[in-house]
Hints:
Order of helices and strands: HEHHEHHHHHHHEEEEEEEHHEEH
Shape: flat
Largest sheet: 7 strands, antiparallel
Strand content: 5-15%
Number of strands: 11
Mean pLDDT: 84
Distance between the termini: 110 Å
Strand order of the largest sheet: 6-5-4-3-9-8-7
Structural class: alpha+beta
Low-confidence stretches: 544-549
Number of helices: 13
Radius of gyration: 60 Å
Amino acid sequence: xxxxxxxxxxxxxxxxxxxxxxxxxxxxxxxxxxxxxxxxxxxxxxxxxxxxxxxxxxxxxxxxxxxxxxxxxxxxxxxxxxxxxxxxxxxxxxxxxxxxxxxxxxxxxxxxxxxxxxxxxxxxxxxxxxxxxxxxxxxxxxxxxxxxxxxxxxxxxxxxxxxxxxxxxxxxxxxxxxxxxxxxxxxxxxxxxxxxxxxxxxxxxxxxxxxxxxxxxxxxxxxxxxxxxxxxxxxxxxxxxxxxxxxxxxxxxxxxxxxxxxxxxxxxxxxxxxxxxxxxxxxxxxxxxxxxxxxxxxxxxxxxxxxxxxxxxxxxxxxxxxxxxxxxxxxxxxxxxxxxxxxxxxxxxxxxxxxxxxxxxxxxxxxxxxxxxxxxxxxxxxxxxxxxxxxxxxxxxxxxxxxxxxxxxxxxxxxxxxxxxxxxxxxxxxxxxxxxxxxxxxxxxxxxxxxxxxxxxxxxxxxxxxxxxxxxxxxxxxxxxxxxxxxxxxxxxxxxxxxxxxxxxxxxxxxxxxxxxxxxxxxxxxxxxxxxxxxxxxxxxxxxxxxxxxxxxxxxxxxxxxxxxxxxxxxxxxxxxxxxxxxxx
Length: 585
């Protein structure tokens, strides 16, 4: 329903736009009333004049915009549309409203009827956004279809040159620009008007009327079994056959569903290139003109049945949907690429700003470094002068020191001798201290070892005590669980003993009941025998066994066992006879 609504909106948009004479985006209410009434008529929707007048009642708002008309259009027309109207009639109504205003005044190589068909094809191939346009990819697809239908080769180079000269400011062509493109013969040079018209009609039949294949074949009749040439038209779920290709005299339909199949048949009855279409209640024998046509029709019908089994749309609609999805995907990828480019551009600008800031910092640092270098050189000159002064003073001091050294030299020898002696004494004292330190270190090591052993013994003892407590607790827990299990076992044994006793009691009661049953059975058999013998005696004594005679017309008695075998009068006579017998006895 959504796709049908989208298709209808395209035609209605053309009509609304044509009624907008001053291009203000608004249409007068009187014109919209007429448009709504015409739409209800062609779409076979019940017309509600009350709702129409209520929606378009006069007020001060003036003309109605497209957005203002859409709520009424959706609620009272589009939501009620069923797929039972004539789409060609609907398109022709919308076309009539917009053709005079928009169709080019330049002479065209095609008729107005061909222009109408291109207008309908445009609505089928255009994008689902407004204002409606057809993108270059769909233009190429349509021109290829027309070229193939005319039987000439496709000139890709010519179309590429056309795309190069295409206005970059536009995303595609409007319907009137497309009609002018096809009508000026730019891509159909060398073709006559009739050939172009036939090509447009063939593409129109395929894309709009869902004609998958059509052509003359010979069909065998069901009643007279005669062979008659018919014009066959294959659609997604039906094969219609007509007297001729003008489609005026329709002779019948072959309804296709998932259970149908098509088979090739051998030549017979002088007919060649035969094949059979099996449906639910009928079979159709058809003869093609040659083997190629036969194979094409078998393949086309088989593909149609396969699409019905899959629930898929016709190939051209599925291809259009795939192209639209591909364009959406490419557009999304392009938008993502543009977004990434913008991000990269922003990042590049940020990086340029950072580099500019770094450059400024480097320039400032360089100026600071130049000043510092200048200060350093000035400081170096001052230090050099100070160093020379210090050097001169040092030389003077050195001379004085050399004199003092010469004087102190002898004193130094004596001092060195004394130092050597003190060094020997220091070495001996150091050895003694080393021995004492080693002894103390050994003592400290032994003491630490003893302390560590004591700590380990203490931890082991604490651990053993902990284990002992845990074992005591485990033993107590085990004893308690053992006692509990013993109690449960005793309780279960008692319950088992009681159950056995109850079972024995039930067995005894069963035996007693069986004995009672046997006794009752015997009594019942004896009672049955007694009853039978009693019945025989009574029957013999009372004379119940008698010949069957015609019954009395008097009313019968009713006993506990049903209707009696004698009447009230007979009963009274029997009572009298019994009394007489008793008196005689």
